[in-house]
């Protein structure tokens, strides 16, 4: 069996063996969830490894920490190099998931986190295939509401935020679904525990705005651009729960989930219960881009070797 984490990790500026990257038990992030993370994919096309939208992930990585004054003590260039160097050191020759994160280190039980509070930065990676069944997944609306900008800001990708995602995921699995869909504090569609959501009605794409507690997804942004180039308009607006049942097509987007068709919600079939036509078109283009097959979007990929 493949190791869960590749042999080498990047830890505060150095590449070390995974077993040598250790933190003390009084690490603040373990107690309070004071960590920031990103998830990227590397795509192997049998000749080279391509990292998808590296710069955009690093931008969001730094922005998330700003919200909580948690400092990333490395420049964007240093994080970029850390990711590239680690892929090379691990000699990655298959598609992988890359997880950079930074977190508050020793800070006692003090809740007053400032820019000067000690932090550590890490990059890990591991082989990664498909997250969900590409033929489509069954979903249910969660009884848990998505966190909101009034409490724990969902636009900052913080470790602690994912407690909300864990509750929704546990409930959806208990109910026999593949994935949850969360409503925001007003009862509008927000997003899935780790994915943005799109619905298609009458040839137009609709997706909830950040004000509906939806992360500013990089896959979402990519889909909007691909759809536009195909001649499909995307409207970012509030989507009431009921409207999702009227959709012709529904799909989730995320680095891990890529473009995953939703074939049912709360036991109600979406479209004809198969991947929709527009979803399929967008997904084909997206997957070609990730492996360097579509030159028009080559700005989105960074070759490792
Ligand atoms: C809560 C949440 N929403 C949406 C997404 C999708 O974002 P992206 O496409 O940038 O991976 C993710 C994954 O990062 C997520 O964790």
Describe what this molecule looks like in 3D.
This protein is an alpha+beta fold and 305 residues long. It has two domains: 8-127, Aminotransferase class 4, branched-chain amino acid transferase, N-terminal domain (D-amino Acid Aminotransferase, Chain A, domain 1); 137-290, D-amino Acid Aminotransferase, subunit A, domain 2 (D-amino Acid Aminotransferase, Chain A, domain 2). 25% of the residues lie in helices and 29% in strands. The chain has seven helices and 17 strands. The chain has helices spanning 28-32, 54-67, 76-89, 162-174, 218-229, 241-245, 277-290; strands at 8-11, 14-17, 35-37, 40-44, 49-52, 96-104, 119-127, 137-145, 179-183, 189-191, 196-201, 204-207, 234-236, 249-254, 258-265, 268-269, 301-303. Strands 8, 9, 10, 11, 12, 13, 14, 15 and 16 form a nine-stranded mixed β-sheet that branches. Strands 1, 2, 3, 4, 5, 6, 7 and 17 form an eight-stranded antiparallel β-sheet that branches. The longest helix has 14 residues, at 54-67. It is globular, with a radius of gyration of 19 Å. The two termini are 26 Å apart. The model has no long low-confidence stretch (mean pLDDT 97). The structure holds pyridoxal-5'-phosphate.
Key traits:
D-amino Acid Aminotransferase, Chain A, domain 2; 2 domains; binds pyridoxal-5'-phosphate; globular; nine-stranded mixed sheet; 17 strands; 7 helices; 305 residues; alpha+beta
């Amino acid at each position: 069996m493949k190791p869960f984490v590749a042999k080498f990790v990047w830890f505060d500026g150095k590449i070390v063996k995974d077993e040598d990257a250790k933190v003390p038990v009084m690490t603040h992030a373990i107690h309070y969830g004071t960590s920031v993370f990103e998830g990227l994919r590397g795509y192997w096309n049998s000749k080279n490894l391509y990292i998808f939208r590296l710069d955009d992930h690093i931008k969001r990585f730094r922005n998330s920490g700003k919200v909580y004054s948690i400092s990333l003590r490395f420049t964007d260039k240093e994080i970029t190099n850390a990711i590239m160097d680690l892929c090379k050191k691990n000699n990655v020759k298959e598609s992988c998931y890359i997880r950079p994160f930074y977190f508050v280190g020793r800070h006692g039980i003090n809740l007053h986190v400032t820019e000067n509070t000690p932090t550590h930065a890490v990059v890990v990676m591991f082989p990664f295939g498909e997250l969900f069944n590409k033929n489509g997944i069954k979903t249910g609306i969660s009884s848990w509401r998505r966190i909101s900008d009034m409490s724990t800001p969902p636009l900052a990708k913080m470790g602690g935020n994912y407690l909300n995602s864990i509750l929704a995921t546990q409930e959806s699995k208990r109910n026999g679904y593949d994935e949850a869909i969360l409503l925001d504090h007003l009862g509008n569609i927000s997003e899935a525990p780790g994915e943005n959501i799109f619905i298609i009605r009458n040839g137009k794409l609709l997706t909830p705005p950040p004000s509906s507690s939806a992360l500013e997804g990089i896959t979402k942004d990519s889909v909007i651009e691909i759809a536009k180039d195909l001649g499909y308009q995307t409207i970012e607006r509030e989507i009431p729960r009921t409207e999702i049942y009227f959709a012709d097509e529904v799909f989730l987007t995320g680095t891990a989930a890529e473009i995953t068709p939703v074939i049912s919600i709360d036991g109600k079939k979406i479209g004809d219960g198969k991947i929709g036509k527009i979803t399929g078109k967008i997904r084909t283009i997206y997957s070609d881009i990730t492996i360097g097959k579509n030159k028009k979007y080559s700005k989105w990929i960074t070759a490792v070797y």
